[in-house]
Design goal:
The protein has 248 residues and is α/β, with parallel strands linked by helices. The protein contains eight helices and eleven strands. The two termini are 34 Å apart.
């Protein structure tokens, strides 16, 4: 691993399968999860990439499959949502687990925690719950400690990300989702390329490298399993557009 990474080469998408994180990679991170802006330019880019890569483009996100589908509609892509807990082929219903009582119990405790802390936001997800403190950074220590306690009490996986502590069902991550999708016949003979910005993407960077591909870190340099780096969302979209045009 290294915190000094080169930009990805121009031909990296040749004979590749592309996996894209969403928030912080394709769109700027917003103050609240429902405030992201998905432009028609991005939708067209996703259409072009999918068409020119034979459908080998997937979004792998902490958001649910339904959320991603609504955000990119009418574009139809394979989506691995909820950090790999649910996977849906383009236009198909997702394969997903059952929500447990532990998630509901954690949701109740986190709602109580946020009730008297302005700026702390609780996000109820199908298979987990996120505690966002982007607008209340002084609450980070207490928020993370409570999340750790709830993870232990209810047998949930704790995932710390950018100004968020997320509790979710165990058993999957973005790396396992990438491996599942790479086992499909249409992708098995290609190399995986994963683009992401957060520590939640490290499992997918590692999986891509294990399968002979590469990860691309979006954002500031840090220790990572990724092989390449781009500065920000704008640089990511520009590189993807150039890649789509090269494949035309």
């Amino acid at each position: 691993m290294s915190d000094i990474l080169p930009p990805p080469p121009a031909d990296l998408l040749l004979n590749a399968s592309l996996f894209l994180d969403f928030d912080g990679t394709l769109v700027e991170i917003a103050a609240t999860p429902d405030a992201v802006d998905v432009s028609e330019t991005l939708r067209q880019l996703l259409r072009d990439l999918s068409a020119r890569m034979g459908g080998r483009v997937a979004i792998v996100s902490g958001r649910s499959v339904a959320e991603i589908g609504a955000l990119i509609d009418p574009v139809a892509l394979t989506v691995a949502g909820s950090h790999g807990l649910e996977i849906a082929a383009a236009g198909e219903p997702p394969v997903k687990p059952e929500r447990t009582a532990g998630i509901d119990a954690a949701l109740e405790r986190l709602n109580a925690f946020a009730a008297d802390r302005p700026g702390v936001l609780v996000e109820d997800k199908p298979f987990g719950v996120g505690l966002h403190y982007r607008q209340a950074p002084t609450e980070e220590a207490e928020a993370c400690e409570l999340a750790r306690q709830l993870a232990a009490e209810h047998d949930l996986h704790l995932q710390l990300g950018k100004m968020v502590a997320e509790l979710r069902l165990p058993g999957a991550d973005k790396g396992s989702a990438l491996k599942t999708l790479m086992a499909e016949p249409g992708r098995a003979a290609t190399r995986p390329v994963f683009m992401g910005d957060d520590v939640t993407d490290e499992a997918a960077f590692a999986a891509a490298r294990e399968l002979g591909g590469a990860g691309i870190l979006v954002g500031p340099a840090r220790e990572t399993h990724a092989r390449y780096r781009l500065d920000d969302v704008a640089a990511t979209l520009a590189w993807l557009r150039a890649g789509a045009e090269a494949l035309a």
